[in-house]
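Sequence only, no structure available. Ideas?
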Amino acid sequence: MSSRYDLYQPGDSWLHRLDPRVKLLLAVCGSLVLLVFVNLWVIIAALLLALAALWSAGVSRERISAVWKALLPTMILVAVFWVILYPGEGPALVSFWIVHITAASVAQALAIALRLGALAFTIFLWLFTTDQSTLVRSLVALGLPYTWGLTLAIALRYLPTMANALRMVSDAQQARALDLTKGNPLKRGRAYIPIIVAMIITALRTAENLSRALESRAFGAPRQRTFLRQLAFRRVDLIWTVGILLATGLLLWARLVLG
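Reply:
I predicted one. Tokens follow.
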């Protein structure tokens, strides 16, 4: 599968070997803690820990840089608008017209912006180190109906297939003098109608072939599903689970009770 649609990077690190359900728990608990805390130093620490975990797992610099490139515009916009719209308390560092920038507003803007990055990298800890089949199998093991898991797996599997089909149809139509660049937005939208029609036909044919393949394999006949590779919850996974729950509980208690 194309790396554009599959975030998984193969490896044999401690994070790759961790049970996917534990990594999902880590992502959920980490996101919960980040949403509760507003302290700049706590958020910076969480972001650095997530980056250090990705580095220790052998995730390539290119993948981490791609995440930063996608996040930075949004983070900058959030920080700028927060500073402008929420001046905060204390003496103004800069004041003009209706804009009053204070040290508190700058710190809070940085905390909100960096929180987005920390949330993203906390979730990418799970996605970068878990292949799609294992990810879906872990969700089924947690109680997701098998039919839903199969639907998710098929959707992930056919993303690159449909993208390649779209590119081929578009190239073929443009080779036949279809111009997708000239005119106003409405005219350019109408120019995509032949491509949309061809993609609908391709999707219907793919769905028909897929349904026949599932039927020929007696999908839905046995009630009890079997798997080629079973997930094994090891002792180290149990230790990580207990540690994550304890750390999350202590942090939430410190934030909500101690303030």
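Strands lie at 92-96, 99-102.
Hope that gets you unstuck.
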